[in-house]
């Protein structure tokens, strides 16, 4: 019996220890409750922000709002176009001079090398024109003339260079700028157009901006 009572006394925990452990557990519970409360407040704030976003969604500017840079003046565009013509025109001119400047009697061999050289220069002029106007301008937005005049050809909606294929088609569409060779009304259109576009710009949805 005495042994049993001794064991009971040994197994009984001190009251102070029990109180301390009880206080610690309550403190842990309070911290857990506080963290849950903080999480609930964070969730409530996220929910409020989500509802506000649904009620007032962010408005993105329409595609027509780009670009914001000023459009290139008509006279500047004319100057850049003439600069693009210089090198091909010089090559073709040299070829024509070689072809028709002979003063000696023309025989088959003499005319042959003239025709061959003139044809080569014509092909080179087309290659130079294509590289400058279609490839270079399509990838960078600037032909050599546009680089000199600090202008850039870009897509009206994207604000980016239009690529080689669209640059080529845009040059083909210049036929509408001259009204099929009758009158160059399209080239004069930027004088009163708000975006200073020629007809080929309107067809391909492009603009030329000043940079």
Would you write up a description of this structure?
There is one protein chain. By secondary structure, the protein is mainly alpha-helical. The protein folds into two domains: 2-55; 67-210, no CATH class. Helices cover 66% and strands 5% of the residues. The chain contains nine helices and two strands; from the N terminus they run αααααβααααβ. It has helices spanning 2-11, 15-55, 74-100, 108-140, 144-149, 164-172, 174-177, 185-188, 199-204, and strands at residues 151-155, 206-210. It has a two-stranded antiparallel ribbon with strand order 1-2. Helix 3 (74-100) packs antiparallel against helix 4 (108-140). It is elongated, with a radius of gyration of 40 Å.
Uncertain runs are 1-11, 15-21
**End-to-end Cα distance:** 104 Å
Topology pattern, helix = H, strand = E:
HHHHHEHHHHE
The major beta sheet can be summarized as: 2 strands, antiparallel
Number of self-contained structural domains = 2
Count of DSSP helices? Answer: 9
Secondary-structure content class: mainly alpha
Could you give the count of β-strands? 2
Mean pLDDT, nearest integer? 76
Please report which band the strand proportion falls in: under 5%, 5-15%, 15-25%, 25-35%, 35-45% or over 45%.
Answer: under 5%
Q: Supply Rg.
A: 40 Å
Main-sheet strand order equals 1-2
Helix share bin: 55-70%
**Bulk shape:** elongated
